[in-house]
Amino acid sequence: MVKITLILLVLSFPAWLYAAEEDLTSEQFEQWFDDESFLFPLEDNINEGELQFLTSPPEKRTPHSRNILTVTEQSLLNGWVLVDQCHEQLDPLRAVEIAYRYKNMRSLQIIEAKNINKAWIEGNSIQLEDVSKNAKLCVQLEAKILYDQADGTFILRNGPFERKFLDGYFPMHVNLLISYPTGKLKFIKSQPHQAPGFDIALSDGNIIIESWFEGKLTINIHFRIVI
């Protein structure tokens, strides 16, 4: 028997730890390793955490995290932001744990679980059992991630987003839609800035970010108060 412990850090504010364990025979391990769903090729040039944007999507199926962050006028007073997340293309595994590591969070709930036999909340984590191919999990929670600064500005801090296996970091796809009250806040800048592999689009009251990357990605959105 070969015991596989897969640890995949994805979408961290720090946000979730995606971990699974499988007891496999040597033959089953080889089949699992060679399967197209295995997303961690053993390459000489393994990313060790340095942020690298990808200008085109990877050939292999890549976990995708879709996020809607809703900043309200009340958020300006208490820092709490509504977070809706959908995790798609999860790996087919027997057991998965998604452990949220926000410094401050509340009201975690499961909205949708597709191609997952069983999903339940345990503390600040979500436990998944018998995850099938093309699984999808959507959750909602509140996180205290809007910080007021001494100069009167605000920073909405997300990250680091990361997808880690052993000592290597592997491709990840993230979408963010940030909604904010235009009568109260004005977008100043983002860190990182617009770049190939990190796209930013602005519309009235919304910031849309899409990124393909390897390594650790922290996104800071800077606002100022509208006078």
Describe the 3D structure.
The protein is mainly beta and 227 residues long. The chain has one domain (2-225): Immunoglobulin-like (Sandwich). It contains two helices and 17 strands. Strands 1, 2, 3, 4, 5, 6, 7, 8, 13, 15 and 16 form an eleven-stranded mixed β-sheet that branches. β11 and β12 form a beta hairpin. Residues 1-22 and 36-42 have low confidence and may be disordered.
Question: Could you list some keywords that capture this structure?
Answer:
disordered N terminus; Immunoglobulin-like; mainly beta; about 230 residues; eleven-stranded mixed β-sheet; about 60% strand; globular; four-stranded antiparallel β-sheet
Counted by DSSP, the helix tally is 2
CA-based gyration radius: 18 Å
Uncertain stretches:
1-22, 36-42
Report the β-strand fraction as a percent range. Answer: over 45%
Helix content: under 10%
Q: Indicate the mean pLDDT.
A: 81
Q: What summary fits the major beta sheet?
A: 11 strands, mixed
CATH architecture: Sandwich
Distance between the termini: 66 Å
Structural class by secondary-structure content:
mainly beta
CATH fold annotation: Immunoglobulin-like
CATH class: Mainly Beta
The geometry reads as globular
Instruction: Count the domains.
Output: 1
Extended strand count: 17
Order of helix and strand elements from N to C terminus? EEHEEHEEEEEEEEEEEEE
Provide a brief overview of the structure.
Helix content is 6%, strand content 60%. The protein has helices at residues 26-34, 75-78; strands at 2-10, 16-24, 52-53, 64-70, 80-90, 95-100, 105-122, 125-144, 146-148, 154-161, 164-165, 168-169, 172-179, 185-191, 198-203, 206-214, 217-225.
